[in-house]
Amino acid sequence: MYRESIRNSYDQFAPGYRRIADYLLMHYQDAGFMTAAEIGRQARVDTALVVRFAQRLGYPGFPELLSDVQDDIKRDLRAVYEPPAGDNSPGQMVRRNLMQDRNDLDYMLLHYDDAAVVRVITALTQARRIYVIGEGSTAFLAEAFVVRLVALGYQAHLMSNEIMGQAAVGASMQNGDVFVGVMMTALSPSVSVAVKMAREAGVYTVGVVGALNNPIAAVVDAVLLAPANSMGPMPSWSAIAALLQGLTQALALQNREPAANWLLNSDHYRQLVLATLKVQLEGIRDTLQTFSSAPEPSLQNVGATPS
Description:
It contains 13 helices and five strands. The chain is α/β, with parallel strands linked by helices.
């Protein structure tokens, strides 16, 4: 299929070929019904290059590539985009969004910048302190990332979205710290303010963004793209969660001893919690048995005045 062919050859593509490949992967539903000239206009290349691109992928010509793209569309229609007439059920919406999340992850892998990721991991590993902030739907992702960093032995802190809390943290930032801003959409003013504070303090800044036109993408030292496209009114945080998960696992390998200790301590505390719950439940059971075995008061004595 054209997707696999593009993925296998993308690193060797010239810039024009990459623009065609990007357009096919991100807009294949439209491209399947376009001419070579129309695809060329969208990708900002000439028609002849689109034809040569099809041949570069191993097709005899453009019509054969187009047929393969149309087969991909038909598969999606059968599986997702063509539910029974009138079926707008929650189940169909879940399937559509799963397909979109898959496309976002495919796009992220296709544009994966190994060097940029290694630079971010190196900076986090060597950081004196790590400050992380998210806003709106990404706030809980930022918090989960911090919890795991702390468990792995890193000096990680979750920044507040409240302006005075940000100001206090910003005043304590120093060279050698690392700032990570998680920003799914442009509607995250607190993250933008925190990035500005971090840069003024000379801190290495990382932006985990849902789109490259995100305001912080142009000002941070390192950008990690995790597309937030969705099939509904709310942007998807699936790719961002996957990216933060990947960073966490890579950092765990860089800091093996704390990671191993975290696993051991987690098991120890789990056993401690279970033992405590067992004691508490036994106490509740004894209390219930005491009440159930106590004799019921006689109705004729209820309200009687003691002699």
